[in-house]
Amino acid sequence: METTKSTSTKSKSTITAEFTIAYTQFLDAVGKPTQPLPKFATKPDELIRLYKLMVLTRTFDTKAISLQRTGKLGTYASSLGQEAVAVGVGAAMHADDIFAPAYREYGVQLQRGVKMQDILAFWGGDERGSDFANKHDFPMCVPIASQYLHAAGAAKAMQLQGQSRAVVAVGGDGSTSQGDFYEAVNVSGAWNLPIVFVVCNNQWAISVPLRSQTRCQTLAQKAIAGGIPGEQVDGNDLIAVRNAVANAIEKARNNGGPSLIEAITYRLHDHTTADDAGRYRDESEVKEAWQRDPILRLRNYLKDLKAWSDDQEQELLTTSKQQVDAAVADYLQAKPQPTTAILDYLYESVPEAYQDQYQQLSTTKRSA
Amino acid sequence: MAEITLVEAVNQALAYEMSQDKDVVVLGEDIGVNGGVFRATVDLIDKYGPERVIDTPLAESMIAGLTVGMAAQGLKPVAEFQFMGFIYPGFNQIVCHAARMRNRTRGRLSCPAVFRAPYGGGIHAPEHHSESTEALFAHIPGLRVVIPSTPARAYGLLLAAIREPDPVIFLEPKRIYRFVKQHVPDNGEALPLDRCFVLQEGNDVTLVTWGAMIKETLAAAKQLQAQGVSVEIIDVATVKPLDIETILASVEKTGRCVVVHEAAKTCAVGAEIAAQIAEKGLMDLHAPVQRVTGFDAVMPYFKLEKQYIPDEAKIIAAVQHTLEF
Ligand SMILES: Cc1ncc(C[n+]2csc(CCOP(=O)(O)OP(=O)(O)O)c2C)c(N)n1
Ligand SMILES: [Mg+2]
């Protein structure tokens, strides 16, 4: 048997990964500016508009949970504590951009033609919830991380069609462990696609904390291996989220390629109404996280500006509740789908082979 | 001894086998501290520690691939997929590797692993949480597909699946996770794989089913019995490889067969059973084999899931059809 002698060679090395990840915040946890605000945020009216959307999102969320608890809604995924991420992303998007959500980005969807009753229908077990007024956005996406690849495909379509529109995909911290995530980041870099990945890092993937998900210090740095820029923002600072996402979208719409933004936030509720977070996480952690509440932060700032009063707050809570109640009434009154809906939308038209099943469905009674 | 549910029986089997065999490890999403979203792995982490009760990062291709690697190198992994609807990222690993490791290495390596997943509808769950796609796995040579329908069979079949030297897809009918309670002695006694279970003997018609449809089938049989129809009920339990001999023996006696399953009709396990009866037992039949199944449609969201899942009335109508044929 021959043995091979190893000859030592001087290796030439290339530095490929020396990086820093920027972290941006404009308002601190109590609503004090930490640096000069971006232009859009210098107009109190614009901030008030977005503040109202966050409050509406939360009012909706609270109601949805109570509907679930009283048997009027199925399992529901709360967005409590994450309102600034969603509202910030939604505010940054152009109407003709394309959104690929996960399943708790209501604050984006409500700005893009999705009604609260659509969201309720989705969680209420009715497919019509995904047939919303926005004609190009993707529906909610439950199989974790699969939406990132749809977004990349949509971005490729924009590129091939010569349209200057961006695609924005949102997913969670847990989703960045999936192959689909890495694949989407990689192809977006390879093809310089007009896409923005927003990783909504709420610290938990059901019961699995971030530190068990990855050894990476940041999720933003996962962009680097795909050759695309990654940065972090304070996800409870609406101004920071909107600013970063808007910049990334402008870049994408102007052939500047993809970006990844990690928005650091916290899931204040159970994973869904079917979950009990008390089994795996400390109540003290949640309590502490409430101090970074995104809504309180912006309200403090607006109040410091004297742009927002307690009376306005009271009125907003009342009108938000009215809006939500009207949507809920709509949802509860919706006529059920006919049983044939099971086959009506499977193909463009019902194939000959399934006509007998279709007949059977049309005579199937709806049981209570 | 307390009576336990099907999901508790799964837990009992896992705990038993982990206590007996240190090579058994369980892995999956939220299976550790949280005990699994259905609590199938509850308390295991306290008993056996995080080295053997492994909360993984969120990636099913990774879970399936890790399972293949562990199994090939001396462990007996039991992987949990949170719902059958989320097993598909792992499908590549299961089909291209788990099912083939023994064959492609001519037996040098193998895959003594269990891939567990709750499956089926009827619990008002969100999208992708209610499918029954056992036929996808039953089609793959090299896999076993096992589906318990009672606490006792969950315990005995899961023990057998873990001890089995080849990969087993173990599908748990979540609609009946907590439907009945039984005394299930924790004695480590496995039940045989690759065998149907005759639940009830009868002479007029054979009802063949598995998983949660056992519930509607038993209820239909009760009504038929009251009408004077003598029903034989078979729980297939291992849908691959199929114990067709037990089914044929029954059909030889009754001359009639109705197969009941929740999955869509086309190319499902019911089609295989009907085909084998046609091949091997045609002359015993007094009426064509009937299939009572889900529609050839995407599993609807829960507002219409009751209309999708076969009910007792449909089973009874199919039996009547075979009687009147
Ligand atoms: C492919 C897939 N696997 C598992 C699940 C079950 N599941 C639903 S949400 C979730 C955790 C997701 O965590 P993260 O990506 O951080 O998003 P978050 O829910 O925190 O917003 C899991 C495991 C799923 N929906 N899809
Ligand atoms: Mg998360």
The name of the CATH architecture of the largest domain in chain B is 3-Layer(aba) Sandwich
Mean pLDDT of chain A: 96
- As laid out across the biggest beta sheet of chain B, the strand order is 3-2-4-5-7-6-12
Low-pLDDT runs of 5+ residues of chain B are none
Residues in helix, % of chain A: 40-55%
Distance between the termini of chain A: 79 Å
Gyration radius of chain A, rounded: 23 Å
How many strands, which pairing sense, and closed or not: the largest β-sheet of chain B?
A: 7 strands, mixed
Q: Please tell me what the overall shape of chain B is.
A: globular
Mean pLDDT reading of chain B: 98
Shape of chain A: globular
State the order of secondary-structure elements of chain B, H for helix, E for strand: EHEHEHEHHEHEHEEEEHEEHEHEHH
The topology string of helices and strands of chain A comes to: EHHEHHHEHEEEHEHEHHHHH
Largest interface: A-B, 43 and 38 residues
Structural class of chain A: alpha/beta
The number of E-state strands of chain A comes to 8
CATH homology superfamily name of the largest domain in chain B = Thiamin diphosphate (ThDP)-binding fold, Pyr/PP domains
Strand content of chain B: 15-25%
Fill in the CATH topology of the largest domain in chain B.
Answer: Rossmann fold
